[in-house]
Specification:
single chain, binds nicotinamide-adenine-dinucleotide
């Protein structure tokens, strides 16, 4: 990190370009590694995630200098590196989070020590290795990214308490976010979500059905922004579910719903939690393991359930989507707000009523709010804007980028330097 801070910004830009190229060139290789190691998701979608973060994570241009001049002289604020950052990464996007975090953090002049998820350590470490090689080849220092070889909760504690680590970035579930926020260090925390979708009677049903199936089945629903439950107004509910079936969803009924609950969820302390064996697995695998008869090759399971069903309450992280009927838009909004559990993460709406869209955006108060598109368009995939895979919800940085990993420093000069 000390060596990086001595280099010019132009050089830093060249290192970032080399990292992007390594991410693009190895997108498929890393996608396969991640899939082999974790068993989660779909290789083709993981390729897209690796490409997205390599291309659209902002680089050094994200660091904007602020300058003010006046009668008393000049004030300058620049975005400086924190130093060495400790980053804890999830099993659900293991290589794409490493590419994304590394581009953001190194663009800001930092180095990173990772504690990758133990279930995805090899794929995450390979991504670091390839990025490090690209940096060295481009004339940068070796080892800007490093990691515990055998990451455990103990190594994460070492990182969280180490004196030389000035800042933490944590992407994962509630437990790790809670621990990191108590560490006493500056922390960028990207926590869990349970993104609801609202579909009102003014929605373009054909488009809404396709978007929901595409978003909820992408990488088998492991993305934190992915559609996790749907609240649909009664008058369009049947037509929405019928159209979703035509787009690749498989609808289950009655006892089959209960079979899936018993298979993919576990009861713990009176609450349902997910059985990790089914996270990010194919819809067909889930149906088969649950003993449900089906035909074709569905990418998503949908179930017409009540609003308190575990498919609604639990962050499923697998292609199983609870569909809830409501009487009207107001009820949909109340239920969507409740189902999001205050995570303030992501929510979607399908509607052509501008008033409903605005009311939902305001009330949901989420970091990402998507209108009339699949959830992933909120990450810049098929939508406008830059991308990240670390969406800082509780700490408020939102969609992180290089500037999220900087310290603002101010310098003033009295008197001179004005030209007017
Ligand atoms: P996870 O919480 O199981 O693991 C995340 C990381 O935290 C891993 O490296 C793990 O080893 C570590 N960890 C877990 N408990 C810990 C503890 N008590 N102390 C120290 N480290 C601990 O998450 P996962 O299943 O790999 O990923 C899915 C979760 O992450 C979902 O809840 C998802 O919503 C969330 N997520 C959020 C974002 C975001 O940007 N907000 C992005 C991706 C994933």
């Amino acid at each position: 990190q000390a060596q990086l801070s001595e280099m010019t910004l132009e050089k830093r830009g060249e290192l970032i370009a080399a990292m992007r190229k390594a991410g693009i060139d190895n997108a498929e290789y890393l996608a396969r590694l991640a899939h082999e190691e974790t068993g989660y998701g779909r290789v083709a979608d993981k390729v897209q995630k690796n490409l997205l973060v390599s291309r659209r994570t902002p680089g050094i241009e994200d660091l904007v200098t602020r300058c003010e001049t006046g009668d008393k002289g000049m004030m300058l604020i620049e975005q400086a590196p924190f130093g060495v950052i400790g980053s804890i990464t999830p099993s659900t996007n293991p290589t794409s989070t490493v590419i994304n975090n590394s581009i953001s953090m190194i663009s800001a002049g930092n180095a990173v020590v990772y504690n990758p998820h133990p279930a995805a350590k090899r794929a995450s470490q390979k991504a670091m290795e390839l990025l490090n090689e690209a940096i060295v080849k481009a004339g940068g220092p070796n080892g800007l990214m490093t990691a515990a070889k055998e990451p455990t909760l103990d190594t994460s504690k070492v990182i969280m308490t180490h004196k030389a680590i000035k800042m933490l970035a944590v992407t994962g579930g509630e437990a790790v976010v809670g621990v990191a926020m108590k560490s006493g260090k500056k922390c960028v925390a990207a926590g869990p979500g349970n993104p609801p979708v609202i579909v009102d009677e003014t929605a373009d049903i054909a488009q809404a059905a396709k978007d929901i199936v595409d978003g909820a089945s992408f990488d088998n629903n492991v993305l934190c922004v992915a559609e996790k439950e749907v609240f649909m107004v009664n008058s369009i509910a049947d037509s929405l579910m019928n159209t979703m079936e035509k787009c690749g969803a498989y609808r289950v009924y009655g006892e089959d719903i209960d079979k899936i609950v018993r298979t993919v969820l576990i009861q713990k302390d009176g609450k349902y939690v997910i059985n990790r064996k089914f996270v990010g697995h194919d819809a067909t695998y889930i149906l088969r393991e649950s003993g449900v008869q089906f035909s074709g090759d569905p990418v998503l399971v949908i179930a017409d359930v009540d609003r308190y069903h575990p498919f609604v309450e639990v962050e499923m992280l697998m292609p199983v989507l609870g569909m809830v009927r409501v009487n009207n838009f107001d009820e949909a909004l109340d239920e969507a707000f409740r189902a999001e559990h205050g995570c303030q993460h992501s929510a979607m709406i399908h509607s052509s009523n501008v008033h409903n869209m605005s009311r939902a955006a305001r009330r949901m108060n989420t970091t990402i709010f998507v209108k009339n598109a699949p959830s992933y368009s909120g990450l810049g995939f098929g939508g406008e804007g830059y991308t990240t895979l670390t969406i800082a919800t509780p700490t408020g940085e939102g969609l992180t980028s290089a500037k999220s990993f900087t310290r603002a420093r101010r310098c003033v000069l009295k008197g001179d330097f004005r030209i007017i």
